[in-house]
Design goal:
single chain; 2 domains; OB fold (Dihydrolipoamide Acetyltransferase, E2P); Aminopeptidase; alpha/beta; 3-stranded antiparallel β-sheet; 21% helix; 264 residues
């Protein structure tokens, strides 16, 4: 793990990249931003950048011993590299709100994920400029379970478009946070809430993420077997080959983020 500070003064925001070594979009966007001639700092605020799992990134693999984003809160005495790393990373980001950049195989369209809706999380969601935000607290684990923060799925893993999106989101958030000069796009994303994981291996996903599947409609197929929606839902992170043991997640649409209350 290595860290960089961009801007002046103590950081008010942490940006985490490279939790998964086979999702390079965040680190590439960070490097592109650091090298950009058009980058203009305000001199009034700073952000902490954390390049999380360097051994996994060097190997081009998701992890070394275990999935880092399922290893929190970690254990400094653990045998697994990622369990030790998780503990260190939480110490490094401390109480800062966190923007965590990822990519996926399920969709090219970017969206944000959160596990608790606090004022700081809500602010970060609006600062991304994105149209969709997903409450995924039904899935235990993940960095955003332990910090005020969000994960952004920037697009298809390994694509140039995911790097472009990661840089766009990063610049927008940093401008909204006062680190970069410029006028950010502030959005009010449509919120969705994951209600359950759809288990099963070897299924072909027949639908489209964030497009409603009406009740009675087949949405996945394995040979002659189909999975049919008992009630209508919105697919999230569903794909043919994204997970070894599930198709993805069923979600319901909540409406504009601005209409949702903060967590108690």
């Amino acid at each position: 793990m290595r860290t960089h500070v961009l801007g002046a003064g103590p950081p008010s925001l942490a940006v985490v990249v490279g939790q998964h070594g086979d999702e390079p979009c965040g680190e590439l966007a960070m490097e592109r931003l650091f090298a950009a001639d058009d980058r203009r700092l305000t001199g009034e605020a700073a952000a902490l950048f954390v390049v999380a799992n360097e051994p996994a990134s060097d190997a081009g693999e998701r992890f070394v011993d275990a999935d880092l984003n399922r290893a929190y809160p970690g254990d400094p005495e653990a045998d697994a590299h990622e369990a030790r790393l998780a503990s260190r990373l939480l110490d490094v980001v401390d109480d800062l709100p966190v923007l965590d950049l990822h990519s996926t195989v399920s969709t090219a369209e970017p969206f944000a994920l959160y596990q608790r809706l606090t004022p700081r999380t809500r602010r970060l969601l609006s600062w991304t400029g994105l149209d969709r935000a997903v409450d995924i607290r039904t899935e235990a684990g993940g960095l955003t379970q332990y910090v005020d923060g969000i994960a952004v799925e920037c697009g298809r893993k390994g694509s140039a478009a995911a790097v472009d999106t990661a840089e766009r989101v990063l610049r927008n958030v940093l401008a909204a946070a006062g680190v970069l000069a410029g006028d950010p796009t502030i959005s009010d994303p449509t919120a969705f809430e994951v209600v359950e994981r759809v288990d099963g291996a070897g299924y072909e996903f027949l639908g489209e993420n964030f497009v409603e599947v009406p009740a009675g409609t087949p949405f996945a197929r394995r040979g002659d077997e189909t999975l049919t929606a008992v009630e209508s839902f919105y697919p999230v992170l569903m794909s043919t080959d994204g997970y070894a043991d599930s198709v993805g997640f069923r979600a319901r649409r909540l409406g504009p983020l601005s209409g949702l209350p903060d967590d108690d």
